[in-house]
Structures are given as structure tokens and as C-alpha cells.
Protein 1
Amino acid sequence: MKKQLISTILIICFLAGLTGCAGRENKTKILRFGLEVAPDNGSAKIAEEIADDVYKRTNGSVKIEVYPSGQLGTQRDYIESAMLGIIDIGYTSLAGLENFEPGFVLYDIPFTISSSQQAQKLWDSKYSKDIQKKLLDEKGIRMLCWLDMGPRNVYTTKEIRTAEDFSKLTMRLADVKGLIDLFDALDASPQVLAFSDIYTGMQTGVVNGFEIGLESTLSNNLQEVAKYCIETSHSYTLDGFFMSEKSFQQLTDEEQEIVLDAFDKGGQKQIETFQNNLPKFKQQLANAGVETITLSSEEMNKLFEKAEPAIKKSIDGIYDEFIVEEIRNMAN
């Protein structure tokens, strides 16, 4: 992990050397924006739109350079680099911040969020605002907006029809404690791999399953290495754009307002666009030959029962147990 962070720092320093002189000449402030997703992913497209908006509205005084496809490292690298003020803006699943601020498990408690509207209510809640403030105060990371990536399902090369079948799976997972605990509880074998290694991992049999949102599956061509989509909806993916507070404070008050507004509007556009595109994404998955399997109510109830210890473990010492029902009630 340290070697990866050092590599990220060296890449950014090299890029700074390429752009630094131009930045000094015209006094343009360069903000480097790292994303692990492919350029045609909706989040990457929104990032480019936000960058254009900021550049125009600041009359060129702030230029956001977008680096997709993991050019600046992994999501964890973005977070660590932002804390050090090395990278300016990053993209991560909100659950990925759990490794740095445990309270971010709020967004990733299994089987609690079921819709975009409910996710928005959670984002706007006092719980959410408090944990974001803590991240800012203690880690120097400012959340800019949330992004809707929809329900997370399980993609496999194995046919899964029952709760017991999960024991057949070696699951690629992000380095997120809550996810690892969940699939441990479901009797699968967790295997932490970088997002960029999913394709090769599935192709070579290092893993035979992964869990992410539908758009990320399609934009990274992962439907090519999966035969089945198991509709577990075990969590609802809230991703987010964040900024190093050290970088944010280098902007003028007016530039700060423009950046915050551009990201807020960009985030809302992504949410609307994603929801409109969901039916198309599902059809694309079917056209690729991936069979979608819907588990019976009986088998889903078995999954819920198996997941209960992981749910309790995920919030132990962080939140009271009643928060699970509070979040579920936000669906009403």
C-alpha cells in the first residue's frame, strides 16, 4: 500500500512538472482530479462537465484536470493523497472512507437502503452532515457531492440459486471492512483486489464473483467475464467526489463558491441521469448474455438472517442499533 502511495506521489509530481510552469505564467490554479472508473462511465463524464463549468465560471483562474482509469492510483490512494494535500480532488465509494473514518459505515450498512430517494434523505440527514464534518475536521477532506450508482448486485461465473450457494464464491471485494464482514457472514471467501484487477481476476479464476453497481459493470466491460447477475441488492452504492481541504483553502472565496456550486449541480445531474439510464443498462446486460437471477423470498430471508451478525458488527461501537431502522424508515 505504501509503495502504491509513493508511486501515486511520483506520478502527481511528474504531472505537476508538466503543468506547473504554465500555471505560474497565467496564474491558473491546477486541480488534479483522480478517478478509478473508465472515461465513458457516467461519473467520469460528469467530472469533465464540472471541470468545464468551473473553468468557464472562474474565467480560467481554476482548471480541473481529470485523470480517469486509475491513472493517479486507487480510491484509497486518492483519499490518502488528499489528506496530505498531494492530490486535489478524488472519487470514491462513500463506504471506502470507512477505513479512514468509521462513521462512514452509515452509507453501507447491508440491506438498509433501497432507492435513490432514500439515499438522498440519508445524505441530507444530521447523521450524514455530522460524519462529513468530522472527516473535514480530523482528516482534512471535504465532501463535495454524492453520486448514485444504484443497488449493488453479485456478478459470478457460478450459478447461484440459494443462500447456501454463496459458499461456492471467491468474491473480489474492495478493501472495505463492512463488505468483507458481510460476505464472510454469507459464507463466501473474500478476496481484496483493486478495481482495475477485477477483469483479469475473473478471467484467470483468481476470483469467480464480484459485487458492484450495474453502470460500473458495463463501463468497464465486466459483463464479458460474468455469466450471472444475482439480484441481492445487498447495499445501495453512494459514491462521492471529495476535495483536499488544503487545496480548497488555496482558492479565493469566490472560487470556492463556484467549485462547491458546480459540484453540487453536477452531482444532482448525475443522479437524475443515472436513474433515467437504468432501464437501458439492464437491457445492455441482458444483450451481453448475462443471466439475471432473482432469488426467491425464502432464500432472500435466509440471506437477511445470515447478514444480521455483519450488520450488528458493522455499527458496533459506532452507532446504536436503532440507526438501522431509522435508515430503513427513510424509505417511507
Protein 2
Amino acid sequence: ENWVQTNVTRYYPDSAQVCNDKELQAWYAESINVGHAELRHEAWWPTLATPDDLTSILTTIIWLGSAQHAALNFGQYPYGGYVPNRPPLMRRLIPEEGDAEYKSFVADPQKYFLLSLPSLLQATKYMAVVDTLSTHAPDEEYIGERNHPSIWTGDAEMVEGFFGFSAEIGRVEKEIEKRNSDPTLRNRCGAGVLPYELLAPSSEPGVTCRGVPNSVSI
């Protein structure tokens, strides 16, 4: 939010700038009326009239496309890669009372479930898809990273602000590492306990169950 606020304050210093920017207002109207047409009449949509409004809206969008997506996506293979945990399809319907298969279902639900699972070929294809979705590319750019920020913008104030944001992300990662090594936090440190790394900003390539790219990258 601090990084977004730095940008908003720089380019939209007052409410008049926000309200009079036709392109900005058209973008937000399209987001509501076209992007979420079925919800466009809901009363809970935030207004876009002040710099604080813009900061909040942009922060939410960036959060959804970066940290939230990363936490949901890049940790799914250890669970979803085992097909019985999250089968992509079932080859038999759950029978209702009176169906021909109902008695066998009641007699041994586990056997019926196993016979309903995808075939070996179907399961293998699904595992490959989940593996691909969970994999970081070698050239992934993570939040707080940007090669040559001075090329991205000629505004020295924004370059300096970005370096501040990058340093803040580095502090977040160190705090996560600190908590993961704290023996008093028994939910994330100790024998048989997995450290919490889903929101650790950086990552190596591959399936790592950590790393927050700048945006959705699948």
C-alpha cells in the first residue's frame, strides 16, 4: 500500500485530479459495469473520487494478482498432484437410493470412490497440468524486483520509491524466515512441521511452494 500511495500521491495529488481524469474514471466504470456486469448494481462498490480511494482500489487489485494468487497457486502441487485428493473428474455418479449401484455404494463407499477416479492416463495428464501451474519459470520476476528500474521510468522520485518498496519486501522475507525459525511458534517450527513459505517473496525456479511474482504468471 505504501508503494501504491507513493505513486498515487505523485500523479494524483488531489481529488480534482482523480475525478477529472476521464480515462481513469472510464477504466473504473468498465471494471464494474463490464468486468462484473452481474454485480454492477451492488451498493458495496467503492467510489473513485479521492487519492485514498484510488490507493485502496489499486492496492486491492495488485494484491489479488500477486500475493493472493501466488499463495493459492504455487502451493497446490503437493496436495492436488495426488489425484485422489482433488480429482479433476469422476467417472461414476454418486448413486441415489433406488439406483442399481446404490447397494454396492452403501456396502463399500471407499471401493466405489476408487472405481470412480480418473484412469491412469487421465490422472497423469492432470498431474502434469498441476505441476506446470505450480512451477516458477527461470526468468520469473518477483515482487520487489525489476531489472533496470531507470529504464521503466525516467522519474527519479519513482525510482527511489521503488527501491524503498524493494527494501520493504526484503524485510518481509526476513520476518517470515525469523518466524519460521522461532521454536515458540509451534505451528510453523519444529519436528514434522512445515515452515510457512507461501508468501515468501522470492523463489528458485521449479515447484517450490513459495515466491510471489509481480503478477499472475501462468
